[in-house]
Amino acid sequence: MSEEQDCLQFRTLTEQGTAPDGSFLQEHRLECEACRSWEMQSSEVTILASSLPQFDVPESLTQKILNSVEEERRQNLTTNKYFLLPLSLVAFISLLMNLPLDNWENFASWIIGLVGILSLKLLLVAANQKSVELP
Length: 135
Ligand SMILES: [Zn+2]
Known about the structure:
- By secondary structure, the chain is an all-alpha fold.
- It has helices at 3-16, 22-31, 33-51, 59-98, 104-133.
């Protein structure tokens, strides 16, 4: 196994806190300065993080934040709808004007593609509404 892979394995096993092969960890710790340094910094960060005060946020504040995020998302969706409909119409018309539509088969394939995209969009909107309704 290469040096780099040893370092990766050492750090992964140390982070997981599960060491199936304790001798590997001991050996690598002795021979690798970089991993010794990493392990020391890592444990300092862990100690520092555990000494930070824990704040208990009231449930009403959490609900307020969630509601305002949802409200903002809803407003963005409404704005996007009014902006995207004319834009997609213009894009579709310019496609029709610029692409060769020599015969009815060609035109029909474009209509089939459009219907496919529209039904995919309807499916996505329905799936999105379902996921919003879930608690
Ligand atoms: Zn190492």
